């Protein structure tokens, strides 16, 4: 990387919420959320041009104008985009190369610490191996980006890509919803990632809303049986006067083999709340009780959207 900076804390800021992915936001409040995160010790920020169809990067860029560059590591992505409410995908070498420079302009930076191929399951994995990743490695060799990674919901896809590229091509993976109170699938892959020198970023400690008092949004792809189990778990935590969100964040950030866990909020108060949760001891007995309630649903598979 360009500069030597202190290591990322075990909680990272996911900027998807700045694009209104989960619900509409007030831009000024979202900018304050970014400042609140960095001012209180978070130094890893993740975003994508896909989130809000470029809106998240644009809002984040306004916040980053006011933050010294050595205060954070920045990760963004290539491959998934959108316009006028229509999602698009393009993993070609030309598009991903252009995308990197476009992201830097929106983000008001001249260097990306980590560039990820976004959700490789939407692409031909052979194209990822033979075209997309070589284009990003070329940018790494030029010093435009510091590190190259891949992201996906399904960890088996991440494993397959790593097995089919030269060593050192993929330096990190981002997997979401598979190291949380209701799903520990990521544990099955940690030995493989470590053996290949690949760092691991976990995302969505709330499992995209399943592990919250509000509950999963209507678009959530989880089956109804899992949604019901998580609702029962949330009610159990509420009865113990221990919000399930608190337990979820504590659990997802508790594994030292995972570099950082991303959460997303455009609300400064929620940012502070989650940071506070991480700094409190976790109720391990309650973890066991919640996982017993969820039970067989912990390994239920559901597809990306």
TrEMBL record:
It holds the Pfam family Aldo_ket_red. GO terms for cellular component: cytosol. InterPro entries: AKR, LGALDH-like, NAD(P)_OxRdtase_dom_sf, NADP_OxRdtase_dom. It comes from the Bacteria. GO terms for molecular function: L-galactose dehydrogenase activity. Residues 11-293 form the NADP-dependent oxidoreductase domain. This is Aldo/keto reductase. It comes from Marseilla massiliensis.
């Amino acid at each position: 990387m360009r500069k030597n900076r202190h290591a990322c804390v075990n909680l990272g800021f996911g900027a998807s919420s700045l694009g209104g992915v989960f619900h509409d936001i007030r831009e000024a409040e979202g900018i304050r959320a970014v400042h609140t995160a960095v001012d209180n010790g978070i130094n890893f920020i993740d975003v994508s041009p896909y989130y809000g169809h470029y809106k998240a990067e644009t809002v984040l860029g306004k916040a980053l104008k006011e933050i010294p560059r050595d205060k954070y590591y920045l990760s963004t992505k290539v491959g998934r985009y959108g316009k006028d409410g229509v999602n698009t995908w393009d993993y070609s070498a030309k598009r991903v190369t252009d995308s990197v420079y476009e992201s830097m302009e929106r983000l008001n930076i001249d260097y990306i610490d980590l560039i990820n191929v976004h959700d490789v399951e939407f692409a031909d994995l052979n194209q990822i191996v033979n075209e997309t990743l070589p284009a990003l490695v070329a940018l790494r060799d030029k010093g435009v980006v510091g590190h190259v990674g891949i992201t996906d919901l399904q960890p088996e896809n991440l494993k397959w890509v790593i097995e089919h590229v030269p060593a050192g091509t993929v330096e990190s993976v981002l997997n979401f919803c598979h190291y949380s109170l209701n799903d520990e699938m990521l544990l099955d892959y940690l030995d493989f990632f470590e053996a290949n020198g690949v760092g691991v970023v976990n995302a969505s400690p709330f499992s995209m809303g399943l592990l919250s008092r509000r509950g999963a949004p209507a678009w959530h792809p989880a089956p109804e049986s899992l949604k019901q189990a998580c609702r029962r778990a949330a009610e159990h935590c509420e009865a113990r006067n221990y919000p399930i969100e608190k337990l979820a964040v504590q659990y997802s950030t508790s594994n030292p083999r995972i570099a950082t866990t991303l959460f997303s909020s455009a609300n400064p108060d929620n940012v502070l709340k989650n940071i506070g949760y991480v700094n409190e001891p976790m109720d391990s007995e309650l973890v066991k009780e919640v996982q017993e309630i969820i039970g067989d649903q912990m390994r239920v598979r559901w597809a990306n959207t």
